[in-house]
Amino acid sequence: MGTRIQASADVSPDAQIGEGSQVWHLAQVREQAVLGEDCIIGRGAYIGIGVRMGDRCKVQNHALVYEPATLADGVFVGPAAVFTNDQYPRAVNADGTAKSAADWTAVGVTVDTGAAIGARAVCVAPVRIGAWATVAAGAVVTRDVAPHALVAGVPARRIGWVGHAGARLEERDGSLHCPVTGRTYEQFENSIREVTP
Description:
Shape: globular
Helix content: under 10%
Number of helices: 0
Low-confidence stretches: none
Number of strands: 26
Order of helices and strands: EEEEEEEEEEEEEEEEEEEEEEEEEE
Strand order of the largest sheet: 1-4-7-10-13-16-19-21-22
Distance between the termini: 38 Å
CATH class of the largest domain: Mainly Beta
CATH topology of the largest domain: UDP N-Acetylglucosamine Acyltransferase, domain 1
Structural class: mainly beta
Largest sheet: 9 strands, mixed
């Protein structure tokens, strides 16, 4: 299947859009952004200058992914989620002059393979969301999230673990079990790992 870009989308000619990717109505993809294969950019979403996305990512309607964010393969970004890029946001400098691009350095959010960011969540850069982690809807992430962690709240805190299917793992007999796939996990260092039968 070829690339599909809706006529109302604003895609820079300097952006790279991978084979099979779709950019929907009123979305904006800025200069030097790189989208992998089979990505979906929803209605009204914003992909900033130089943002890097792997294959099979989904950025839902009205999500804002500001540069220099990096998304690995299979990342899900829910509707109206925001990735910030300014640690010390101000419209003006301390002397009252208008702040320009030269007056600050953009910092990014990094999202590892398979992670999911819920609707209206805010990831405050610089943070890293570990592989297969889930950020609950409406959460505000202000520090790194461990792989497979389920975080929620303001500020976001770990409330459990999730497996590869995204379901919250159930604890029994000293192990963690996925109710969807039947896979078993165990705690390991600051995360979990799958236990092979």
